[in-house]
Design a protein that fits this description.
Number of strands: 2
Helix content: 55-70%
Strand order of the largest sheet: 1-2
CATH class of the largest domain: Mainly Alpha
Strand content: under 5%
Oligomer: single chain
Number of helices: 18
CATH architecture of the largest domain: Orthogonal Bundle
Number of domains: 2
Shape: globular
CATH superfamily of the largest domain: Hypothetical protein af1432
């Protein structure tokens, strides 16, 4: 055995420790076949994601709160790291493939717009109006990694990673998470159908690793968002319902530890991921509490309308620039000039503009709105 074979075997040793329900490295499949190196395919996907330009832009994207002069308030990169850690903890405890988990977790929010879910709702309105198709950040995450990144050539990630990213939907809590058997063609079809029919946007992942990330997405933000709100003086942990505190705990550390331990104990040795009845009901109550007291109040109505109008304005500016071939406009100098011919030929004008806006950081988006919106009233930092 030569050194390269030994190195490959070292990477594959993880598979020997996995449960019968885990996804083995040898099951990995890419949309386009390519020669693998000494790394296992899922491990290689991790590298491709963290070295991407989109991953770098996590640093300046909103989690919940925008425009807050507090360095301890979570950004999107914080959330992604927490999802990764929580999901890997659960995965290791129950014998799943932590390389696959990490790749899904690190890539799951790549498609998030500036200003978080608020910005996503603006871009969905624009997309429905302009193309008749939905915009959802999880779908855009798969799109960005497979069709926009790497100058439009994509990263050619494994289908298991892309499926986990597409199906992460961290806004709906379930008591049990079951896998859904899929082929490569099924995943691509689901991706395409998500633009047209919302029911395709809520399917289970094809792997237990994907299920773990989907649940960990929720676990990671439940308590952390409360901590952020408390730091900003928006609420106090004393406001959390007593029943929730009695079951889950009084702070983020206790909440995460309680839920993670519960999931591990109820999922080990099973072909699905499960939460106990008491913990599930407490999580549901806490999610409702957070929506009423945090998410619905994270941005003022005036600010929402300002940036809704601003996003519509810059959409129109970029679309006009493409129609008129204004090569000095930002959509060319920052984005389209870097994309390969296949992306340029196969992508509609509307989709090019949506891709550009979706990829923006908060600061870049804000500066573009300031530049093109004539109203001088600015509700920012």
């Amino acid at each position: 055995m030569n050194n390269l074979d030994q190195i490959k075997n070292n990477f594959l040793k993880l598979d020997d420790t996995l449960s019968e329900f885990a996804t083995k490295s040898l099951e990995a499949e890419r949309i386009t076949l390519e020669k693998e190196d000494y790394r296992t395919p899922f491990f290689r996907d991790i590298d491709r994601i963290i070295y991407s330009l989109s991953y770098t832009r996590y640093l300046d994207k909103t989690q919940v709160y925008s425009f807050k002069d507090n360095d301890h308030i979570s950004k999107r990169i914080t959330h992604v790291g927490l999802v990764n850690k929580i999901a890997r903890t659960i995965g290791r405890a129950i014998g799943l493939n932590t390389d696959l988990i990490e790749a899904i977790a690190l890539g799951h929010d790549i498609g998030h717009t500036p200003l978080g879910h608020t910005g996503e709702s603006f871009l969905n309105e624009i997309s429905l109006r302009e193309t008749g198709e939905y915009f959802c950040h999880n779908v855009q995450s798969m799109r960005n990694l497979e069709y926009v990144e790497n100058n439009g050539k994509g990263l050619n990630l494994t289908i298991q990673v892309l499926d986990g990213i597409l199906c992460h939907n961290g806004e709906e809590l379930l008591k049990e998470y079951h896998t859904q058997k899929k082929t490569k063609e099924d995943v691509i079809n689901q991706y395409n159908m998500c633009y047209k029919d919302k029911k395709f946007n809520n399917k289970f992942p094809m792997t237990l690793e994907g299920c773990v990330v989907r649940l960990s997405d929720i676990i990671s933000y439940l308590g952390r968002d409360i901590e952020d709100a408390e730091r900003l003086g928006v609420l106090n942990t004393n406001d959390i319902p007593v029943r929730v505190k009695n079951i889950l705990g009084n702070n983020n550390r206790e909440i995460v530890n309680t839920i993670v331990t519960d999931v591990i104990e109820n999922s080990i040795g099973k072909p699905y991921i499960k939460i106990s009845d008491d913990v599930f009901s407490a999580m549901k109550e806490l999610m409702d509490f957070n929506y009423k007291n945090i998410y619905y109040k994270s941005m003022s109505k005036e600010l929402i309308e300002y940036y809704r109008e601003g996003m519509n304005i810059i959409y129109g500016v970029y679309k006009k620039a493409i129609d008129e071939e204004d090569l000095d406009n930002e959509i060319y100098t920052i984005f389209l000039n870097t994309q390969d011919d296949q992306y340029l030929r196969n992508t509609s004008t509307e989709r090019k503009v949506i891709d550009f806006i979706a990829g923006m950081t908060d600061d870049y988006f804000i500066n573009q709105v300031k530049k093109y919106k004539k109203d001088v009233k600015i509700f920012t930092k």
